[in-house]
Amino acid sequence: MGGHLSVTTEDLAFKPHILNVQTKYLFISRYDIASISKAKTFGIVSNGLSVHLNNGEEFKFVIAGKTKFLKAVEDTYLGG
Q1: Using an 8 Å Cβ cutoff, are 16 and 22 in contact?
Q2: 24: which of 12, 43, 60, 62 lies 20 to 30 Å off by Cα?
Q3: Out of 17-21, 62-66, 71-75, which region has the weakest mean confidence (pLDDT)?
Q4: What stretch of H or E contains 14?
Q5: pTM of full prediction above 0.90
Q6: What is the DSSP string of 22-71?
Q7: Please, what are the domains in the chain?
Q8: In 3-state terms, what secondary structure has residue 19?
Q9: How far apart are CA 29 and CA 13, in angstroms?
Q10: Which helix (H) or strand (E) holds 77?
Q11: In what order do the strands lie in the sheet with 3-7?
Q12: CA-closest candidate to residue 61, choices 21, 23, 4
């Protein structure tokens, strides 16, 4: 999914780019997240994040600075 992913105290918020296939805002409650891990797009490019939910759903995002983003998630949700 292309767009802007941000972390708040309550959820992950995704705002899609205007030309993206995904056109709706997505909010994932921090309490619904089972895990977040680094991922590869197309199986080779290490620029993605996989968000796994407690109900088995998975969302994949392409993100620049994924290590910094993961740290922000840990700091926000797990107290660093």
Answers
A1: yes
A2: 43
A3: 17-21
A4: strand 11-16
A5: no
A6: --S-EEEEGGGEEEEEEEEETTTEEEEEEEEETTS-EEEEE-TTHHHHHH
A7: 3-78 (2.30.29.30)
A8: coil
A9: 9
A10: helix 66-78
A11: 3-7, 11-16, 26-29
A12: 4
Any idea which residue has 């998975």 for tokens? Answer: 58
Phi (first) and psi of residue 55, to 5 degrees: -85, 5
Q: What does the mean pLDDT of the chain come to? A: 84
| Two tokens, residue 66 | 């994924």
**Which one is predicted more confidently, 10 or 79?**
10
Q: Please tell me whether residue 75 adopts helix, strand or coil conformation.
A: helix
**Do residues 24 and 16 make contact, with C-beta atoms less than 8 angstroms apart?**
yes
Q: Is 67 exposed, middle or buried (0-12, 13-18, 19+ CB in 10 A)?
A: exposed
